[in-house]
Amino acid sequence: MYEILSKVRRLIPNRGKRYSFYDVGFHGDKYLIQLVDSLIKDCRYFIETGANVGTTLAYMAKTYPHIECISCEPDKGAYREAVKNTSSYTNSRLFNETSQQFISRLREKMADLFSEKCLFWLDAHGYGFDWPLKEEVEFITSNFGSGLILIDDFLVPGEECFKYDMYKGQTCSYDFIKDSICKDKNHRVYYPAYTDRTSNHHPLTGWGLISFGCERELNIPDDLKSKINGPIDFG
Ligand SMILES: C[S@@+](CC[C@H](N)C(=O)[O-])C[C@H]1O[C@@H](n2cnc3c(N)ncnc32)[C@H](O)[C@@H]1O
């Protein structure tokens, strides 16, 4: 009996959830990785929501040892894997909680970060938890003075080759979050301008970048300029 059960567990690991760890973050998308490399230069913190098994968290902590990398993951199995995958990086901190709880933690215990320039990677969705994207955008843009928000699985307008997410009939897109962006701060929106898939392990996945409270447009490196579309004029 025990043998049969352990065979079944091996065939259906973690009750159907896939816990796959990769050496490289951000879906292994070469251009997104280059963009992150230029954005992080101005930041002291990388803040992620939805770590899963810590692929992007470990990548950031390993690649940028001088950056504090903080994330949350409510799924116990994924969290345990993420802890293992990030345990050798002293600049990484991970909380076993939802983004909604993580937001309360930032507000109540880590408010000193509000004056720091942070790069956010909002990627909390699925696994049966409530989708926190609007709350995240509202909290970040109202409390942090300025910052950079990358949203994963985002609809890239006019580019059907990019996959994006939908929850309960709502599309992960600028239209969905635009009213959650703090009205007192300026913001700019950027999208990918490439259509080639550079990842060995993931399909082409949409993203959006929102800079808020920043005086100037982003300084995109010359070799990346043709790959990034923005700032978008919503005129
Ligand atoms: C696509 S995976 C994240 C991948 C990871 N960010 C990376 O780049 O390696 C999405 C994760 O979000 C988590 N999640 C779902 N709802 C969440 C919520 N409300 N708060 C925080 N995490 C959530 C899921 O458990 C899942 O592990």
Task: Note down, in words, how this protein is organized.
By secondary structure, the chain is α/β, with parallel strands linked by helices. It has a single domain, classed as Vaccinia Virus protein VP39 (Rossmann fold). It has 7 helices and 10 strands. The longest helix is centred in the middle third of the chain and has 11 residues. Bound molecules: S-adenosylmethionine (SAM). The site of S-adenosylmethionine has 23 residues, from strand 1 and helix 3.
Q: What keyword list fits this structure?
A:
alpha/beta; 235 residues; globular; disordered N terminus; Rossmann fold; two-stranded antiparallel sheet
In short:
By secondary structure, this protein is of the alpha/beta class.
Shape: globular
CATH architecture heading: 3-Layer(aba) Sandwich
Level-1 CATH class name: Alpha Beta
The fold-level CATH name is: Rossmann fold
Structural class: alpha/beta
Looking at this structure, what is the CATH superfamily?
A: Vaccinia Virus protein VP39
Number of strands: 10
Mean pLDDT across the residues is 93
Tell me the quaternary state.
single chain
Radius of gyration from the alpha-carbon trace, in angstroms? 18 Å
Element layout with pairings:
Layout: H1 2-11, H2 30-39, E1 45-49, H3 55-63, E2 68-72, H4 76-86, E3 92-95, H5 99-109, E4 118-122, H6 133-143, E5 147-152, E6 166-167, E7 170-171, H7 174-177, E8 187-192, E9 207-212, E10 228-229
Helix pairs in contact: 5-6
The structure holds S-adenosylmethionine.
